[in-house]
């Protein structure tokens, strides 16, 4: 991601989530050592998925994964996840962590299919239309594949 991509990233975030990250949060991610990846389709100008990754002290944290709503279920999330895992492994991370909404069954299945294990729950972690929603915490040991 470059500064020129900020508008498009914010727009995809707003389409993909009921409670999207703000422009200030997304912009702030560009000022630290987060790795922000945009997935594209050859011949198309707009990116279809995006992922935010933090790697430090031998650990990787997937902070956000978003896929265009009309492109979900077509493998873009899985391809991006695989890229994030490869990137983290190349940077020397031994473990990867993430949080996911307890109600996000397709994402949960994608993480389980890729070998992640549920290791915890964060009560009331996410905003929800009716208050707060729990996050499931997942982990993956890297370099064991």
SSE diagram, text form:
Layout: H1 6-16, H2 23-29, E1 35-39, E2 49-56, E3 59-67, H3 76-90, E4 95-101, H4 105-113, E5 117-128, E6 131-141
Parallel strand pairs: 3-4
Antiparallel strand pairs: 1-2, 2-3, 4-6, 5-6
Structure description:
This protein is α+β, with helices and mostly antiparallel strands and 145 residues long. The protein has a single domain (3-141), classed as Gcn5-related N-acetyltransferase (GNAT) (Aminopeptidase). It has helices at 6-16, 23-29, 76-90, 105-113, and strands spanning 35-39, 49-56, 59-67, 95-101, 117-128, 131-141. A 6-stranded mixed β-sheet has the order 1-2-3-4-6-5. A hairpin with a 2-residue loop joins strand 5 and strand 6 (131-141). The longest helix has 15 residues, at 76-90. It starts with 5 loop residues before the first helix and ends with a strand.
Major beta sheet summary: 6 strands, mixed
**Based on DSSP secondary structure assignment, what is the total number of beta strands?**
6
CATH fold-level topology: Aminopeptidase
Mean pLDDT: 93
Principal-axis shape equals globular
Order of helices and strands: HHEEEHEHEE
Q: Note the total helix count.
A: 4
Low-pLDDT residue intervals, each spanning 5 or more residues? none
Number of domains: 1
The N- to C-terminal Cα distance equals: 28 Å
Proportion of residues in β-strands: 35-45%
